[in-house]
Amino acid sequence: MYGQILNVVGPIFVMTFVGYVLGRSKLQLDSATISSLVLLVATPCLIFSTLTSLDISGETVAKMALSAVLCVSIAALLGLAVLKLAGMSYRTFLPSLMMPNSGNIGLPLVLLAFGETGLALGISYFFVIALLQYTVGAAISSGQYRFRDLANQPLIYSILLVGVVAVTGIEVPVIIASTTELLGGMMIPAMLILLGTSLARLSVSDLKPAITIAIARLCIGLPASLIVIAALSLSGVEAGTVFLLAMMPTAIVNYVFAERYREDSRQVAGAVVVSTLLTFALLPALLWSAYAVSGQLPQ
């Protein structure tokens, strides 16, 4: 059992550490350019390639997408209660409690834990989280919503293309399938390296709110995931995938929007760092719990 868990968490730690070393080095890695490449090219390609090449039904994709919406909605309600009790700013910290890092850490984790099936299910969950981050999350931080923020997301168009392939039953040309597979393949290692780079460059300016948000993110993710798993009667890899992705730490993109729109963005940076480190420390236990939830606990 311990060997299997180590085989899953080991590569995540190693690739994140590589990013951390690069972030602390004098190479001056251009994180903004790499993150744009991941968002605009690699992510849409991985979504298209995975959902059109693996045997996953539209019903399953819809179920996972609904799981993501429900998890975020429950997290929003619980997050509002936590922030009210703690006397902390909704606009500053609510996105950090609502939006988990289901991309940088979540997708590599479900891929290593549950294989290609886990990746397909994870992507069906992740694309909803990503859309919510760049629309609802940005709207909370900025105090205004713009429809063009949604229209400008390449994820939307990759999902539409997947829908066209599913409805029409057309076979994706080999050249397109091979190209999107290769481009999408860089997403997961690039995300982990970017995570490590971000951890190397972000700092904790105020420990108290950082610890509060980090602990609250985990405590909110647990009931949210279990409620959704029970409500939608999820089992097996579906249940394990939802559990892991809902338990992820606060996403780095929350800091990006806080830095753009908020004066207290350094507190969000601290929350990202502490939340990520706390999740990393608990990763073996979270993985064991996900196996237990899925009914695939290693012997």
TrEMBL record:
Keyword Cell membrane: yes
A Pfam family this chain is assigned to: Mem_trans
Keywords: Cell membrane, Membrane, Transmembrane, Transmembrane helix, Transport
Domain of life, source organism: Bacteria
Topology of this chain in the membrane: Multi-pass membrane protein
UniProt keyword Cell membrane, yes or no: yes
Membrane spanning stretches: 5-22, 34-54, 66-87, 107-134, 155-176, 182-202, 214-234, 240-257, 269-291
Subcellular location as annotated: Membrane
Name the UniProt record assigns to this protein: AEC family transporter
Species whose genome carries this gene: Hoeflea poritis
Organismal lineage: Bacteria, Pseudomonadati, Pseudomonadota, Alphaproteobacteria, Hyphomicrobiales
